[in-house]
Design goal:
Blueprint: E1 3-10, E2 16-23, H1 26-35, E3 39-45, H2 50-56, H3 65-80, H4 85-95, H5 99-113, H6 118-123, H7 131-143, H8 146-203, H9 209-242, H10 246-258, H11 263-283, H12 288-298, H13 302-316, H14 333-345, H15 348-398, H16 400-404
Antiparallel strand pairs: 1-2, 1-3
Helix pairs in contact: 3-4, 3-8, 4-5, 7-8, 8-9, 8-11, 8-15, 10-11, 11-12, 11-15, 12-13, 14-15
Length: about 400
């Protein structure tokens, strides 16, 4: 396992630079620094204390799209202001709040210092930098407009973050209400109904049918609950591990688009993501085949990925980009026609941006309408279920005097 060393070196200009690097031994690291043109001044092994072990226990913090959007925006501003690439990376490494991203930026800076290109250094960390970011950075390096590419990436990631935020805010209320309702009904069945059941049994007589059903559900839940908890834990573990498997996605993704209420929303989200990413990459000068390959993977739905694969084959044969999309019902005619017009006029990136903006607005309108529709429905359903349980519990009390006699 590689050891982390903290170094202090003097470069060819006489300036002292500090940083961290991983290596098998001090001799290997010192030789590596010398080959990079540095004169090592000090080299110390970074000791891992018990406190550090405690803090790092449980895995590193995940780098989110919001972190990447902030990084891209700040990086673009620094480069546009005339700061060098290495100086910008050094500043971002120091001020980035996400510790995982800061650590990776340190490694990227070390790679760039060693003569590697920025895109090649980023490509060594696919768990942090998505393919769209790597390819657009490479295009910006080749074309000499890295600051513009970073600004476009920041805008792209910010739009994606807003989209996620809208969906999350729309789904938070019904999910929380449903979870609270399930907990409340489970608590009633497990703790309250048995008390009433024992009281009714002491009175004798025949209980009303709704009450008998409720008592039966209470007894069944006591038996099933342990197995249900174990099943939920196992299923959650299995889903996190296999949700990106081809077999699972081939079964689940088409169902998402066919869902009665949320299918249309899932379709709009996927189309918005596809057109935004493709338009951003085309505008940045990424070759169309590479752009299609990357955007197909970022849509989050295998149905659209298959459509994009058809488009790739069409482009390889020299055919128009939009024609194969007409064969896939997931793409509305408006999308196909607007992409066709964009190809004919040479403004495909602008047309894709307009499509993305349109579907972003559609997603926002759909989520708002769903929220306004779901809220009263959830209240009515939850109130009806809990009310029915309470009525079933109190029905025998209406006959309590008859039972006593």
């Amino acid at each position: 396992m590689a050891t982390t060393f903290e170094y202090s070196v003097r470069n060819k200009d006489g300036k002292v630079t500090k940083g961290r690097v991983e290596g098998d031994s001090k001799a290997v690291v010192a030789e590596k620094l010398k080959t990079m043109g540095y004169n090592p001044l000090s080299l110390d092994e970074v000791k891992t204390t018990g406190l550090n072990k405690q803090i790092s226990f449980g895995g590193e913090k995940r780098v989110k799209l919001k972190d990447l959007s902030i990084f891209s925006r700040q990086f673009a501003t620094m480069i546009n202001s005339g700061l060098s690439l290495l100086r910008s990376l050094s500043i971002l490494e120091e001020q980035t709040e996400n510790p995982t991203l800061a650590k990776v930026l340190g490694k990227v800076r070390a790679e760039v210092e060693g003569g590697s290109s920025l895109s090649a250094a980023m490509a060594k960390h696919p768990q942090v930098f998505p393919p769209i970011m790597i390819h657009m950075t490479r295009a910006g390096e080749v074309g000499g407009f890295l600051d513009k590419v970073m600004s476009q990436l920041a805008a792209n990631f910010e739009a994606e973050v807003r989209l996620h935020g809208k969906i999350k805010s729309a789904m938070t209320y019904p999910v929380v209400v449903f979870a609270m309702a399930v907990l409340a009904m489970s608590a009633m069945l497990l703790f309250i109904v048995p008390v009433f059941a024992s009281m009714f049994a002491s009175l004798g007589g025949t209980l009303p049918l709704p009450t008998r059903i409720l008592v039966w559900l209470s007894g069944a839940l006591k038996i099933v609950m342990p197995f249900l908890i174990v099943f939920l834990i196992v299923f959650t573990w299995w889903w996190r591990k296999h949700k990106r498997d081809a077999k699972v996605r081939n079964f689940v993704d088409p169902l998402k688009l066919k869902a009665p209420i949320f299918g249309g929303l899932a379709q709009k989200i996927a189309i918005s993501r596809f057109t935004r990413n493709l338009g951003t990459m085309v505008h940045s000068g990424v070759p169309i085949l590479q752009a299609l390959d990357i955007t197909g993977q970022t849509t989050g739905n295998v149905v659209i990925e298959r459509a994009v694969e058809d488009v790739q084959e069409s482009v390889r044969r020299g055919e128009p980009l939009a024609r194969p999309l007409a064969n896939h019902p997931v793409f509305p005619p408006m999308v196909v026609q607007m992409m066709s017009v964009g190809e004919d006029t040479g403004a495909l990136d602008l047309m894709l941006g307009k499509i993305s903006d349109f579907y972003d607005a559609e997603v926002e309108a759909t989520t708002e309408s769903l929220t306004s529709l779901i809220e009263p429905l959830m209240i009515a359903v939850v109130g009806g279920m809990i009310g029915a349980m309470i009525i079933a519990l109190y029905m025998p009390i209406f006959k309590v005097f008859d039972l006593i006699q």
